[in-house]
Amino acid sequence: MAARTAARSRSRSRHPKGSPGRRSLVDWALPPNYSTFGVVIDQLFWIILVITGIAFLLVEGGIVWFCIKYRGREGARAHYTHGSNRLEIIWTVIPAIIIAVLGAYSALVWDDIKGSSNRPADALEFLVVGKQFEWNITYPGVDETLGTADDFTVRNQFHFPVNEDITILLESEDVIHSFFIPELRVKQDAVPGMTIPVWFDATQTGNFEIACAELCGLGHYYMMASVTVHSAADFDAWQASQAPAAAQ
Asked: Is 168 in the same domain as 110?
């Protein structure tokens, strides 16, 4: 536990913590953020939305203006123009610079939350296996180590402690699924034949939902699981209560 506490401190320094429960005027478009790295993800979302929104207004406004200015009039003659090389250079270079900057910033964010070098070394690990149409979560038991005798598996229930680095080893038994917890800003495809590590750190206790975000068959719409984020003491008590039942 002490090692994971130290790892949690490192995680806090890497990912600025937001203000769970406090909603700004722009948060109406997004679920509440209860993840340490949700702040930078949401910032990137809004930056891209503002830039593309401005581009949309300029383009659509230009179309409307040209439709009005050059509408058909009695006696008017069509005029051919080759265009402007200067304008073509401007509207090519500016978007290219914007895309390059967004790409570089996105790569930094991606590396921070997905890069293998940033995977927390002492996280509490779970095995999550998706199959049509359920999620099976294997818990490490009281020894906090997967692959030992006290492991147990629960269907469609994911419990873990708050303010602690969590790593899931994500697998699929059949087709491609997508593990998605919107409030934790976690989304990762589960691919047959692959074990994909996913890590996060929840900043608030509560009840949430795992949804499958990849069309995976006729029962895709009900492939959901409950998520319960506990205090550390409550999680230990819940896990201890489940282990004997799982062993029977």
From this structure: no
* Amino acid letter, 15: H
Alpha carbon 234 to its chain's center: 26
Report residue 34: phi and psi, to 5°. -125, 35
pTM greater than 0.85 (yes/no)? no
CATH classification of the domain holding 179:
2.60.40.420
Residue 64 domain-assigned?
yes
Cα 231 to Cα 209: distance, rounded to the nearest angstrom: 18
Q: Are residues 126 and 238 in the same domain?
A: yes
What gap in Å lies between CA 162 and CA 200, rounded to an integer? 10
Q: Is 238 within 8 Å of 230 (Cβ atoms)?
A: yes
**Which residue segment(s) compose the domain that 101 sits in?**
26-116
Could you report the per-residue pLDDT of 17-44, keeping only the tens digit for each? Answer: 444 445 555 567 789 999 998 999 999 9
Pair (128, 51) in one structural domain: no
- pLDDT, tens digit (0-9, with 9 covering 90-100), for 163-209: 999 999 999 999 999 999 999 999 999 999 999 999 999 999 999 99
